[in-house]
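Practice problem: predict the structure.
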Amino acid sequence: MPGQCRRLIARSLNVLNRFANLTEQEIYKAFAKAADGEPVILSFSSRDFRHIGPEVEYARYLLETVCGDVFGPQPFFAIKTRSNRYIHDNLDCSTDQRSWRYVFDVESIWPEDVCAIGVGTVCSIFYRS
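Answer:
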């Protein structure tokens, strides 16, 4: 609808939940649209009290199933602070070259100052030059 609304509407899919799940089909659809030049947000979330680690690993498994190797030299990493500052920083690569770490401390940012984090990567199978 044309107008003066300056907003984006997106959805964040669930992982290992009962409904609105992130699936291989949803991932393929997002990357195919992006390859065609459409702006796309592919997002997943967890709303429960449980540890999100297994859900992140499952989402990574789905991404690798659809795209193959999903990490380039390094993922994009951003932090939003509670004071509404946005910070971009580098991640530490582990020895297996397939996982990344970030230390929240006096040299970077205290964990209690973090409002949100964002991680992004590319998938070479859908890249077009």
